Each structure stands twice: as C-alpha cells, then as structure tokens.
Amino acid sequence: MYTEPPARAGAASPTVHRVVVEERGSFCFAGCSCGWFAPGRRSRDRARRDAEEHLADPGPFD
Ligand SMILES: [Zn+2]
User: Fold this and answer.
1) Looking at residue 59, what is its pLDDT?
2) CA distance 24 to 7
3) Is residue 8 part of a domain?
C-alpha cells in the first residue's frame, strides 16, 4: 500500500483516483474522481471489478 498525498485545490497535483460504485435501479456503475466511469453492470461485484481494474491500470486517464 502507499499513501496518497492530500489533494490541494488549485495546486498542480497528480491525478487522484477515488473510485465509487453507485447503484441506479438494478444497475451498478463504477466511477472515478479522475473522470473515468464504467458501463452499467447488473452485478455490484462486476462493477467493483471494473473499479479494481481501473485502479490497477488507469490508462489514458492517468
Ligand atoms: Zn481514475
């Protein structure tokens, strides 16, 4: 594990990836503070996995 530096408003800081899984009706969506989001999933587990995959490999959003 590593510790994230605290986000400072207005400062040039590296992209912070804070993932949330949101439920909307019967679908779950994983989204990240960097602007990334996953398509709706019927399974909360699947949405969580999307989130984990994003954190492991943020790709172009890094
Ligand atoms: Zn992200």
Assistant:
1) 78
2) 28
3) no
pLDDT at 26: 94
Q: What is the pLDDT of residues 16-59, one digit of tens each?
A: 999 999 999 999 999 999 999 999 999 999 999 999 999 999 97
Quickly count: other Cβ atoms within 10 Å of residue 53's Cβ: 13
Classify residue 9: in a domain, yes or no.
no
The answer to whether residue 14 sits within a structural domain is no
CA of 23 from ligand 1 middle (Å) equals 18
What is the distance in A from the centroid of ligand 1 to the CA of 40? 17
Domain that holds residue 37: 19-61
Number of domains in the chain: 1
Q: How much distance in Å is there from the Cα of 11 to the middle of ligand 1?
A: 18
